[in-house]
Amino acid sequence: MDKLMGILLELNPDIDYEKETALIDAGLLDSFDIVTLVSEIDDVFGVEIPAQALTPENFNSAKALYGLIRRLQEC
Amino acid sequence: MQRNILEYLEKTVQCVPDKLAFSSEEEALTFRQLYDQARAVGTFLSRQGYYQRPVVVFMQKQPKTVAAFLGVIYSGCYYVPLDADMPRYRIERIVQELKPAACICDDGALETAAQLSGIGSIYSYSSLEASGIDERALQSIRQQQIDTDPIYIVFTSGSTGVPKGVVGCHRAVIDYIENLCAVLRFGEQTVFGNQTPLYFDACLKEIIPTLKYGATTHLIPRKLFLLPVKLVEYLNEKKINTLCWVVSALTYISAFKTFDQVKPEHLHTVAFASEVFPIRQLNIWRKALPNARFINLYGPTETTGICCYYELDREFGEEDALPIGRPFPNTQILLLDENGQPSPAGEPGEICIRGSRLTHGYYADPERTTEAFVQNPLNPYYPERIYRTGDIGKYNCRGELMFLSRKDNQIKHMGHRIELGEIEAAANSHEAICSSCCVFDDAGKKITLYYVGELVPGELKAELKKKLPRYMIPHSLQRLDAMPLTPNGKLDRNLLKQRSKENG
């Protein structure tokens, strides 16, 4: 989780990722952020996020995103 | 002869009054509703005595924003689109430059507008819409209008930190749209999926042909551009058959292998602009849509949008470059060398544009206008303006125009035109910053700002966010003890560019 927080804070240090639950719905991330995020997650965690996993449910909060990474690591 | 872009709407509303013209998540307008709302807005503004003045439209991306644009034109004024997502500092600079007569807001923008000094009188769209239509007043305005009267001012990045307001007119837009429609073969059956914001001229590609043919434009919710599978499902649900998008929005879909999940079912025309399409991504699109037409578009805001096109007619390998092709009819491209003479065949030169599509130049800025809009150096006999793009191009052996590079520090990033100088000016405007240099790594698509000063990178980034739009914020800020200089004592931009590449 710390590694993911590091990646997210690098993208935008002003967002409170502990509390924020509308990263997509409130428009806090743009497409460049998502591309960067997905490629960093691939580098750090070794998981490739497929197109159908790009949903608000998976990306609205740091916690949900971490859950997605864990699920992808297991399969 | 057509003199006014509103004639497109007036003809269409007679034929298909109840057809859907524009839709978004929240609302939808038929041509009749659009026509009535636009005339009500025009009536209201003219009752207040506004004529041939800039009127700000400060509204979200929604169908009634289009009605507000057209309403401003009905009043004989010209619209200036602003967006709530722009940083306050930039909006303030624009308002200072512009001194608008009035500002039309949706409910969400009223509060922000009220805090801006010099914005003029503020009106809520809902009150304008309800104000009734005075046919005679609108007719008398129309009789006075000529086709070189302005329609809009849109702002682009300026290297000194002051955005430039490009003034577009009826004649130029009509010339542009007539030729664009013929080449791209738009028609009544066209269903557009709009991606570009309404505060750029890029949206004219969809708005005006929609009026001309009685076509339909869906304003796609911005959030969907992060969710590729849902985005393609949306295209299918709305039966969208034509896209005119920036390249980065298209590559976002293909790079996530979205087509393995879902394919666009109705798309037959994919036009793209503003950046070089990476061939690998383009080939993924072509494979997914083997029967669609793909068209590369090129052109600056200063010449009313797109002026050159290339329709893909052959296969491209990853090492090949995509042509920008040739100009639309009634537009001519000159490739000029440093002395203003035509470049020899096959040699690079600056892309210069002549034609009726030239805009009037930059609002209240004769100096920067005369730098870019110059006398045609090949014609010493009578006044004739051409626009110097600052882009370097050349013709390939097939006679197709190729884009090579920029003459200056302007870049294209995520579909936005950015002057690196504007980012530097924003950094340098802070008292604790001594000097700065901004570079762009084309391959990694990253903006890096090197600077000398007292602030740590996080502090400077926070300062920049107050002044610049989101897409202009550097991805990386590097503090230096001193700026590297060339042997001539000039800032060594190339060295820093090299360094950013190695670190990226």
Structure, described:
The complex is a heterodimer of chains A (75) and B (504). Chain A has four helices and no strands. By secondary structure, chain A is mostly helical. Chain A has one domain (2-74): Non-ribosomal Peptide Synthetase Peptidyl Carrier Protein, Chain A. Chain B folds into three domains: 6-219, 3-Layer(aba) Sandwich (Rossmann fold), CATH 3.40.50; 329-406, Roll (Luciferase, domain 3); 410-503, 2-Layer Sandwich (GMP Synthetase, Chain A, domain 3). In chain B, the strands form seven sheets. Chain B has a five-stranded mixed sheet with strand order 11-12-13-14-15. In chain B, strands 16, 17, 18, 19 and 20 form a five-stranded antiparallel sheet that branches. Chain B is globular and about 70 Å long. The mean pLDDT of chain B is 93. Chains A and B meet through helix 2 of A and helix 10, helix 11 and helix 15 of B.
Identify the notable features of this structure and list them briefly.
heterodimer; A: 75 residues; mainly alpha; Non-ribosomal Peptide Synthetase Peptidyl Carrier Protein, Chain A; B: 504 residues; alpha/beta; Rossmann fold; Luciferase, domain 3; GMP Synthetase, Chain A, domain 3; 3 domains; five-stranded mixed β-sheet; five-stranded antiparallel β-sheet; 16 helices
**Text of the CATH class of chain A:** Mainly Alpha
The CATH architecture of the largest domain in chain B can be named as 3-Layer(aba) Sandwich
Estimate the global geometry of chain A from the Cα principal axes: globular
Low-confidence stretches of chain A: none
**Numbering strands along the chain, what is their spatial order in the largest sheet of chain B?**
11-12-13-14-15
Q: Percent of residues of chain A in beta strands?
A: under 5%
